[in-house]
DNA sequence: GTCGAATCGTTACAAGACAGAACGATTCTC
DNA sequence: GAGAATCGTTCTGTCTTGTAACGATTCGAC
């Protein structure tokens, strides 16, 4: 753990608060899904596979912004636990089409529950109207910054 | 780079957006101060030293949440570049009191400029009133979550 | 058709960051 | 004055990560 900058004049700026709270949110989320024996990268991959079944590993690597060699290990871990499957495509036997198993689907439901609880905990300081306002502002920022929906760049500790 | 979760029902939840945007903000900031030949941990340390001159390395390690062994390398780097100084305390020669040099002060001013530009770029999607609203909401979240002002937990790539 | 270039997944490798424990030097306590 | 405690440093082992080669398979040109 380290620290970073603190911006302009009076108190921290929005960018620093975003980075600080974002790192905190990521850590807390990692703790929560750790109880399901999952790491954040594993969770992200599982969600990405479920979002569009049958994609190749290379396609996923491109979308997730990770080197293909890293994806191999990730898929291995999920495969060993029976959460995803590699199916050879008869038309093009080079690529492995990834699919989520039933066990994977079940786990995804639990992940969604964890996500809701985490979301609620992070916004504990805000009432319902304020949460809606925050979410709208963040959505506009994410859009303007060109962030891919559902993809989180740069997690630590696989 | 990896990815992470995407929360509840309709679209991403606030917690995911916070983590996603926060990581993005941290990366962009790292790029900006990279042009000043600084890493985020170095920048954070420099700011921390300036915030309270004369503190010991151990005191800083506690505040920043980093192991003392890591701080040594960081202080070395800043010392070699003449940005901070280790001054032995005559009263207690065990500890090294850290101080920012004039060159360090000058660099801090440039860092502040970079921080303002970064802040502005991150909020480009919002008008002034919306930025104030966002900042207020984020400030309350950071406070409620017990985050230490000015300290950013967990940066990657020193 | 066939030969070469390109693509996919995998493996191997090297580089770097990190935390934790062990180590001298110095100071505090009794 | 002797032992425990503190500070900074060094050392070591582990882990993660990106890059580069490697077979297998398919596509394109001729």
TrEMBL record, chains A, B:
<feature type="domain" description="HTH marR-type">
    <location>
        <begin position="1"/>
        <end position="143"/>
    </location>
</feature>
<dbReference type="InterPro" id="IPR039422">
    <property type="entry name" value="MarR/SlyA-like"/>
</dbReference>
<protein>
    <submittedName>
        <fullName>MarR family transcriptional regulator</fullName>
    </submittedName>
</protein>
<dbReference type="InterPro" id="IPR036390">
    <property type="entry name" value="WH_DNA-bd_sf"/>
</dbReference>
<dbReference type="InterPro" id="IPR000835">
    <property type="entry name" value="HTH_MarR-typ"/>
</dbReference>
<dbReference type="Pfam" id="PF12802">
    <property type="entry name" value="MarR_2"/>
</dbReference>
<dbReference type="GO" id="GO:0003700">
    <property type="term" value="F:DNA-binding transcription factor activity"/>
</dbReference>
<dbReference type="GO" id="GO:0006950">
    <property type="term" value="P:response to stress"/>
</dbReference>
<dbReference type="InterPro" id="IPR036388">
    <property type="entry name" value="WH-like_DNA-bd_sf"/>
</dbReference>
């Amino acid at each position: 753990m380290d620290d970073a900058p603190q911006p302009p004049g009076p108190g921290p700026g929005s960018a620093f608060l975003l980075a600080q709270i974002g790192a905190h949110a990521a850590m807390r989320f990692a703790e929560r899904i750790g109880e399901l024996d999952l790491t954040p990268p594993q969770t992200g991959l599982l969600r990405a596979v479920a979002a569009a079944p049958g994609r190749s590993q290379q396609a996923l690597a491109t979308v997730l912004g990770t080197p293909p060699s890293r994806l191999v290990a990730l898929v291995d871990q999920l495969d060993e636990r029976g959460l995803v499957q590699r199916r050879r495509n008869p038309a093009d036997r080079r690529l492995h089409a990834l699919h989520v198993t039933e066990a994977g689907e079940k786990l995804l439901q639990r992940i969604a529950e964890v996500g809701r609880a985490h979301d609620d905990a992070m916004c504990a300081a805000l009432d319902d109207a304020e949460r809606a306002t925050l979410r709208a502002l963040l959505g506009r920022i994410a859009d303007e910054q060109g962030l891919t929906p559902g993809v989180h760049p740069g997690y630590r500790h696989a």
